[in-house]
Amino acid sequence: xxxxxxxxxxxxxxxxxxxxxxxxxxxxxxxxxxxxxxxxxxxxxxxxxxxxxxxxxxxxxxxxxxxxxxxxxxxxxxxxxxxxxxxxxxxxxxxxxxxxxxxxxxxxxxxxxxxxxxxxxxxxxxxxxxxxxxxxxxxxxxxxxxxxxxxxxxxxxxxxxxxxxxxxxxxxxxxxxxxxxxxxxxxxxxxxxxxxxxxxxxxxxxxxxxxxxxxxxxxxxxxxxxxxxxxxxxxxxxxxxxxxxxxxxxxxxxxxxxxxxxxxxxxxxxxxxxxxxxxxxxxxxxxxxxxxxxxxxxxxxxxxxxxxxxxxxxxxxxxxxxxxxxxxxxxxxxxxxxxxxxxxxxxxxxxxxxxxxxxxxxxxxxxxxxxxxxxxxxxxxxxxxxxxxxxxxxxxxxxx
Length: 400
What we know:
The chain is built from 19 helices and 2 strands. The chain is mostly helical.
């Protein structure tokens, strides 16, 4: 449904008010008066008399918008379009190819996108706003890679910003309009940085990618197919998960097939198949641990614990300790550390401490242990042979 500019639902607002408000919607993140005026100049936005907006004029408009509740001001004095209309208006602007491209070009001009060596993103929200303009404003995969290079100093913000830009919320209509190469790359990146466990935010993207397997299978890369197979494992759709693995030739497929067997209750056969897959993956990657995603590694541990012999339990403990490493194994609240502690309690080598297995939710709905799992999962989830960085692929650069 069309949202329209603010004059469509507030008769007290003028055309100039709507122009300033649309600029704030395009910028998305909180911004200052001078930066807002510069963005309007870069976009060629003019007053009704045909002149460029000046800061005093923009300030007067902002006071009217603040009085009408159409913008908000933060503790630092920065302003932004008020939610939810601001986000809805941005999506509406991006659905118009000409408008979307115009705002993207204006932002490129404002930040001197092709000339600068770096961009100073101090906050995740600022980087996410830039990502949305690049992705939905008619940008290409090369533009996104360029943004990664410019944000190299702030790589620690990339993962959260990417999650925020694409998934909060996921807009299937806008995502479907992207060039296929950009769709493939974003799908790959998102399923790399996101956990393989249940997350409400990622499900719309997973559903969109699963639908593309029938409509445009070339959009879904082999590595993403395997991650979707992992998703279907947790949705108890093993038949479809096995079909997704067909035709992919990596050690990760054997590990997934082993996980499918174990999920069906074939503990011993599945565990043996998983161990064989680990040997193949080890030969491919040249290492002895972190060969499988934690999202399926724990299923192997459960398969061993489900067997009646203490020798299998000891093997499960050895695997979990190796995956954790020396530092995390000593932490009973780390992901693999929890498994090591649980196995020690079962073997009688540690006192019973049930509190270690309770997840205390944070205000954001994500427990401390879950956040640590996500970090390890991002590091370990890439399939065998995929050596791309998990968050961004920027090239190192030097200031002139």
